[in-house]
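Here is one such protein, fold included:

. . .
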Amino acid sequence: MPQDIHRCEWAGDDPLYVAYHDEEWGTPERDDRKLFEFVVLESAQAGLSWITILRKRENYRQAFAGFDPDKVARFTPARVERLLGNAGIVRNRQKIEAAIGNARMSLALRDEFGSIAGYFWNFVDDAPQINRFPTMADIPAKTPTSEAMARDMKARGFRFFGPTIAYAHMQAMGLVNDHILGCFRWSEVQG
């Protein structure tokens, strides 16, 4: 990992965090499975640090059927009980049940919008919002768009997806470019 390049301060020096920042965060994503993956992970993150969830990501991938929403939507109460015994994920019944319910809601989005991506990208008129924040302190925790997304998702039955998590989702999936101006990734994700 090159040390002489400038990146967003939140990436710190943890190799996992740096790789996430350098290779994923903020890159416009339109793959439904990837978007659902982040619905699951970001919902699990509520009240925890993101690095905690990143460290459990592969365990989540195994536990949640490779983030296939069709499969997760069919998880049974017995499967929930098994997941509660899985030390590799956050063992919180409400979050596990929310992931299953959110899978079902994601399938409804796919039916209504043609894809899960179609739903999310609709909030930004199908084009990433390009922000030009000079420092991390300038980046908001939520925006009117993330508040509208969270309200709509709640009305559709999604759980653990408030306006702050919705904005984190928008950032991670590249619906907004919130890399700071001095970060080498700011211009990379424009393309």
Q: What stands out?
A: Residues 93-113 form the longest helix (21 residues). The domain at 29-127+139-176 is CATH 1.10.340.30 (Endonuclease III; domain 1). The mean pLDDT is 96.
